[in-house]
Amino acid sequence: MSTKNYAAKVFDTVLSIPGMSEPVKIDLKISRKNVLLLSHFIERGLLLEKDEGSLMGSIAKDELTELKNISQECLQKAGLVELNQKLLTFIDDDKS
Question: Domain of life of the organism in this record (predicted)?
């Protein structure tokens, strides 16, 4: 078994532990720079191909949607929604 497959199975097992789906309240104070970076990393992670041997392949669609919502909420609270959208246009232009 490859290391990638093994890591995905271990992580999937940890995510299955009772209580892991319970919501927790986190009081977090981070810089706007880190909010923007965190949002970018979440978005990039969500774009990864969902194959069976990867961690992304074992995550349910509703959990991925929740991560995207967390990212958007952080951007909104930091007042960075518009800036993030404009930055994404540069990335999209670069792909063309």
Answer: Bacteria
Domain assignment present for 23: no
The helix/strand/coil state of 26 is: coil
**Residue 24, domain member (yes or no):** no
Report d(CA 24, CA 6) in Å as an integer. 28
pTM of the model: 0.77
Is residue 44 a part of any domain in this protein? yes
Q: How many CB atoms within 10 Å of residue 56? A: 15
| pLDDT tens per residue across span 10-22 | 888 898 899 998 9
Q: Closest Cα partner for 2 from 60, 52, 50? A: 52
For 27-40, write each residue's pLDDT tens digit.
999 999 999 999 99
Query: What total number of domains does the chain contain?
Result: 1
**d(Cα 5, Cα 26) in Å, to the nearest integer?**
31
